[in-house]
Design goal:
mainly alpha; 3 strands
């Protein structure tokens, strides 16, 4: 499907980042804007569904997902790095989720100056229910691409990421 076809099928207010590209712009620029638009559309819909179905934000869901992947818990600074947010954001989320009974905060036995956060059994059960639905939503949202196309796109985007993270020469 060409950009012109996409533009004809999407209302102007739905083009998002793609509206920044002109037909004669370099294909790399148009591709980047399409990737950005797709990512934004998917994220917006996931946020909407999480809020409507579970009354939870994407930030809380991501926080719970990180703790679920680390059943032994994580230090607050490690959680901050995984989530790519400030320590203050993690502290605020931890306070809220601890009050809800979904996480527990304990002093780290290896470093008494640090806190370790872990899911409570209730938090783990709640997250598992959300994660099942979340996975179904992602499958549904990517359904316009058949299985072969999804694998192909996954491979292509993997190659792109590897290229983006190649060693860059330093310019002094």
């Amino acid at each position: 499907m060409t950009r012109r076809t996409t533009a004809l099928r999407l209302a102007d207010d739905r083009l998002g980042a793609e509206a920044r590209a002109a037909h004669d712009d370099h294909v790399a620029l148009r591709l980047w804007l399409r990737l950005l638009a797709c990512s934004n559309d998917i994220e917006r819909e996931i946020r909407r569904r999480l809020r409507a179905r579970f009354g939870i934000t994407l930030a809380r869901f991501d926080y719970l997902a990180q703790l679920y992947r680390h059943p032994q818990g994580l230090r607050m600074n490690a959680l901050s790095k995984y989530l790519m947010v400030t320590g203050g954001n993690v502290t605020g989320l931890t306070d809220e989720l601890e009050k809800d009974g979904w996480v527990r905060r304990e002093s780290d036995p290896d470093d008494r100056r640090s806190w370790r956060v872990a899911l409570t059994p209730e938090g783990a059960r709640s997250f598992e229910a959300m994660a099942r639905e979340h996975e179904g939503w992602v499958v549904e949202l990517l359904a316009p691409l058949d299985d072969r196309a999804q694998h192909q796109l996954l491979d292509l985007l993997g190659r792109l990421r590897l290229g983006l993270h190649r060693e860059e020469p330093t310019h002094d």
